[in-house]
Design brief:
BolA family transcriptional regulator, BolA, 25% strand, BolA-like_sf, globular, BolA/IbaG_stress_morph_reg, alpha+beta, 3 helices, GMP Synthetase, Chain A, domain 3, 35% helix
């Protein structure tokens, strides 16, 4: 799986304003901005992203995914 493929999977299952994915093919880092995260704790946000990946998390297609998740308001306040 490529970074672009993983980014597309996340974006197709979650209404995102911004998605960045980087990694080595097994270990990934993502920055995800979505209004759907409003009112959610970090663990709930991560579970929501994992749900978009479904079986890929269980079949080792995506071995590890480290995430930074933001609402659009949080993202606007974050230097990037």
């Amino acid at each position: 799986m490529t970074a672009q493929e993983l980014q597309a999977l996340i974006a197709s299952g979650l209404n995102c304003e911004h998605v960045e994915v980087d990694g080595d093919g097994r270990h990934w880092q993502a920055v995800i901005v979505s209004a759907e995260f409003a009112g959610m704790r970090a663990v709930q946000r991560h579970q929501r992203v994992y749900a978009t990946l479904g079986a890929r998390m269980h079949t080792d297609e995506v071995h590890a995914l480290s995430m930074k998740t933001f609402t659009p308001e949080e993202w606007a306040k974050t230097p990037h």
